[in-house]
Amino acid sequence: MDTYFISHGSPTLAIDETMPARPFLKSWQEIVHKEKPKSILVISAHWETEYPSVNGVCINQNSTIYDFNSHPERLPLFELNYPAPGAPKLAKRVQELLTDSGFKHVKEDTTRGIDHGVWIPLILMYPEADIPVCQLSVQTELDGTHHYNMGKALAPLRDEGVLIIGSGSATHNLPVLGKDSDSVPSWASDFDTWLKESLLAGRHDDIKHYMEKAPNALMVHPEPEHFYPLHVALGAAGEDAKAELIHHSWREAALSYACYRFKTIT
């Protein structure tokens, strides 16, 4: 299994037909990733915890969490449901791999469902909702290296039929977003270009230390939660992984929907 980073952007991605990322995600099974996974592990920007945590739901299906505001244009989202099965065995396996790799505190939450960082992209990628889904949290008080090492620990899952997806955003500074008709500001485009060039060149250490290496890093990611899922997905693919930009578009001037595939070279 290759690993992936998906920029999920606005929750309206699930309903807004004008968003360029929609047809890309809807073509996922036919064009991007044709092999059906046994289960899916999503590292979501929208679950922040002190220690790595997994949702080990033991009931028949995950509940759908509507963790966004109810602006009028978002009201139809509250009518959507993504009843994917829980993946308690995968949750236990994630715990085992992280613990064996030196992560001392790995928690399991048996009541939490899946937030919009998980179900918004999956409702387009796998609308059948028939694949067990497990969610892994991020630790915003720690750094990129921590999350990259989490990914390294989870690498064996690729050979066990598990699709690993980091769900966040290549750029994410919501208070300064503009209109779709506005030009992309240089602070966003420069970071986005740096990210692409660094990934395609295999500069993993630069990605780990993006706050020191990337232009405008703090402006682009004033908080790190939307960037750390990329580190986990990249680490899970291995140090020799080859990155591929598989989708790129902009919305609201400064919100990049860049998506990447990380392919392990054996």
Polypeptide structure, described:
The protein is α/β, with parallel strands linked by helices and 266 residues long. Helix content is 31%, strand content 18%. It is built from 10 helices and 10 strands. It has helices at residues 21-26, 28-32, 88-100, 116-125, 144-154, 186-200, 204-208, 210-213, 217-220, 228-237; strands at 3-7, 39-48, 53-55, 107-109, 133-138, 162-168, 242-247, 250-251, 255-256, 259-263. The strands form 3 sheets. It has a 6-stranded mixed β-sheet with strand order 5-2-6-1-10-7, with helices on both faces. The chain starts with a strand and ends with a strand. The model has no long low-confidence stretch (mean pLDDT 96).
Q: What is the subunit arrangement here? A: single chain
Structural class, from helix and strand content? alpha/beta
SSE order in H/E notation?
Answer: EHHEEHEHEHEHHHHHEEEE
Helix content: 25-40%
Q: In one word, what is the shape?
A: globular
The major pleated sheet works out as:
6 strands, mixed
Strand residues, percent: 15-25%
N- and C-termini, Cα separation = 12 Å
* Arithmetic mean of pLDDT: 96
